[in-house]
Amino acid sequence: MKIIQILFLVVLTVPFIEIYLLLQVGGLIGAFPTIFLVVFTAMLGAWLLKRQGLATFQRFQASLAKGEMPAYEMIEGPIILLGGALLLTPGFLTDILGFACLVPALRRRIAQYVLENHLLQAVGGYGQGQTPERDALEGEFRKED
Question: What DSSP assignment string belongs to 57-118?
């Protein structure tokens, strides 16, 4: 299945899941507590986004000041942004996914996975069995006046 098809399927099914969950929770605890819970998770998400985003930015600056590559921070930044956006989206499924993106230990493991498996292939271009020898052009160079 192509990535566009998967994305289309997610965009199509998530709202139905969210509506179903909102109706189920609303039926259990009532309409006003459900609305309060959705608004509360959005406010908590905004607070966590600000707090963890600033902490990641400070670690980013500290790594640069030490002369190190802030690789984890560069991966964690978009994960934090995605988590905040999911928490600001009304619904319980997106809230669960958003909180998962804002858990530091889980976010660090996601960043480690991306760095170890995908970034090296993307930067080096050596994925799917390619080796540096295949990409090298051989020849001779001679400068003529």
Answer: HHHHHHHHHHT---HHHHHHHHHHHHHHHHHHSSSHHHHHHHHHHH-HHHHHHHHHHIIIII
